[in-house]
Amino acid sequence: MNHAMTDRWKNLQISSLLKNSVLSDGLRKLADAPLMETAYGTVLLPLLRVELNQGLFSNRTGYEAYTNKVLISDFPEEAGQSRNLAESIVQAVLFAQRMRERLNERPEKFRILVGLDPFAEEVTVRFFSLIPGEPWGSESLDENMAEEVILLDCGSGLESGFQETR
């Protein structure tokens, strides 16, 4: 978790909100959807875009990070409703935790990134394979990050947990 997200987490009391929250039906269905291996990478089937091809991306990691991006506001509790920022962050964290459970069952290593654009107040979750030589973004959580972020590494042989700045 970078410093900006740590401050937001504390100010919005996300830890307390998480204790009494459940993942929305739409996000749960998405998190539980089949994972598909394509020629370009691992994707959640409902997020697969047939018009995309690997030629648009510099590597597999870029393709997966783009394709496996979920905008939390696209999954309201009920049609026509919107969430406040704290609720959106909570839903993003719950979705990331559910994806971690699923991805921990796989032999590959993955990174889940929860991001908040502080200007648009849009919360996203994306995941992608951790492939040597194919980084996506900076390893430093505060370096060159316009977003407030939480990183969660998971998969074969990795310690699962949120990375925090110290």
Describe the protein in words.
By secondary structure, the chain is α+β, with helices and mostly antiparallel strands. The protein is built from 5 helices and 7 strands; from the N terminus they run αααββαβαββββ. The strands form 2 sheets. The protein has a 5-stranded antiparallel β-sheet. The longest helix has 19 residues, at 85-103. The radius of gyration is 15 Å and the shape is globular. The mean pLDDT is 85.
Annotation keywords:
166 residues, alpha+beta, five-stranded antiparallel sheet, two-stranded antiparallel ribbon, 30% helix, 22% strand
Short note summarizing the structure:
This protein has helices at 3-11, 14-19, 25-31, 60-67, 85-103; strands at residues 35-37, 42-44, 69-71, 109-117, 122-129, 148-155, 161-163. The chain is of the alpha+beta class and 166 residues long.
Compile the SSE list and pairings.
Blueprint lengths: L2 H9 L2 H6 L5 H7 L3 E3 L4 E3 L15 H8 L1 E3 L13 H19 L5 E9 L4 E8 L18 E8 L5 E3 L3
Antiparallel strand pairs: 1-2, 3-5, 4-5, 4-6, 6-7
Query: Total helix count?
Result: 5
Mean pLDDT across all residues, rounded?
85
Query: Helix- and strand-based class?
Result: alpha+beta
| Poorly predicted segments | none
> Could you give the distance between the termini?
9 Å
Cα radius of gyration in angstroms: 15 Å
Shape: globular
How are strands sequenced across the largest beta sheet?
A: 3-5-4-6-7
Largest sheet: 5 strands, antiparallel
The arrangement of helices and strands along the chain is: HHHEEHEHEEEE
Portion of residues in beta strands equals 15-25%
